[in-house]
């Protein structure tokens, strides 16, 4: 189970009862962005960066992203849930649905790396163990090559004192998490905000990237011909 609960001052008792209840996953309502998108441009990608509550929230602010669902992947068992996913060697992940006419797969990889600690292969901030390690699930050689290119480009920036250790894994079945995990930042904002603050995630990423934490900077982050504005920086 998550070590994140240990960190939360005053939340241990409150969360213990909450997580004891098993809730079956249900289909997350389709976002308005996804409804309005051209289906021919819609694609999906799966990433891991520790707590899926946080990774889901971060990707919802990424240019071109239409929808984000928290879940589990990469393990050996079927139908994992919050109580069993670690036993089946699954990882907490998010499935990102995005518009390929507005952002590339490489752009999503850059966004992931900017919102996690990509040098920590043993977990993510306060959450320790393989269930929280950073990972990119590639669907084919093209996606794998794009991820490797982005990682190499960020390594050359020398932003981190240690090497990037995000694992590249072949894409496998994505299992949606229970309903109460979806949009947790909205449905349980009090718990979420205190957990997120306690992890130090935002302080870490902002110290590394500054105002560019929410900016796609690398060549190839946007489809050819797209001019996108992110923050105060215009990318062509």
List keywords for this structure.
236 residues; alpha+beta; two-stranded antiparallel ribbon; 10 strands; 32% helix; globular; disordered C terminus
Task: Write structural notes for this entry.
The chain has helices spanning 4-7, 12-19, 32-36, 52-59, 105-114, 141-157, 184-187, 189-199, 201-209; strands spanning 42-48, 65-73, 91-99, 123-124, 127-128, 135-138, 167-170, 175-176, 228-230, 233-235. The chain is of the alpha+beta class. The strands form three sheets. Strands 7-6-1-3-2-8 form a six-stranded mixed sheet. A two-stranded antiparallel ribbon has the order 4-5. Helix 5 (105-114) packs across helix 6. The longest helix is centred in the middle third of the chain and has 17 residues, at 141-157. Mean pLDDT is 87; it is low at 4-23 and 230-236.
Ends apart, CA distance between termini: 44 Å
Radius of gyration: 17 Å
- Sequence of secondary-structure elements: HHHEHEEHEEEHEEHHHEE
Strand order of the largest sheet: 7-6-1-3-2-8
Shape: globular
Please state the structural category.
alpha+beta
Record field, number of beta strands:
10
Helix content: 25-40%
């Amino acid at each position: 189970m998550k070590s994140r609960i240990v960190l939360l001052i005053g939340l241990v008792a409150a969360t213990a009862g909450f997580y004891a209840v098993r809730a079956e996953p249900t289909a997350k309502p389709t976002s308005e962005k996804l409804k309005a998108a051209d289906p021919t441009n819609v694609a999906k990608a799966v990433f891991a960066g520790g707590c899926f509550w946080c990774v889901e929230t971060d990707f919802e602010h990424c240019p071109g992203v239409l929808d984000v669902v928290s879940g589990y992947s990469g393990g050996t068992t079927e139908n994992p849930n919050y109580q069993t996913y670690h036993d089946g060697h699954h990882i907490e992940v998010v499935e990102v649905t995005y518009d390929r006419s507005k952002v590339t797969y490489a752009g999503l990889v850059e966004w992931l790396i900017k919102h996690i600690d990509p040098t920590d292969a043993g977990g993510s901030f306060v959450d320790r163990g393989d269930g929280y390690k950073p990972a990119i699930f590639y669907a084919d050689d093209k996606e794998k090559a794009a991820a490797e290119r982005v990682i190499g480009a960020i390594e050359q920036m020398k932003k981190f004192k240690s090497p990037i250790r995000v694992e590249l894994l072949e894409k496998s079945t994505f299992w949606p998490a229970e309903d109460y995990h979806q949009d947790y930042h909205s449905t349980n904002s009090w718990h979420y905000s205190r957990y997120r603050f306690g992890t130090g995630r935002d302080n870490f990423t902002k110290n590394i990237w500054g105002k560019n934490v929410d900016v796609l900077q690398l060549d190839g982050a946007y489809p050819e011909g797209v001019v996108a504005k992110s923050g105060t920086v215009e990318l062509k």
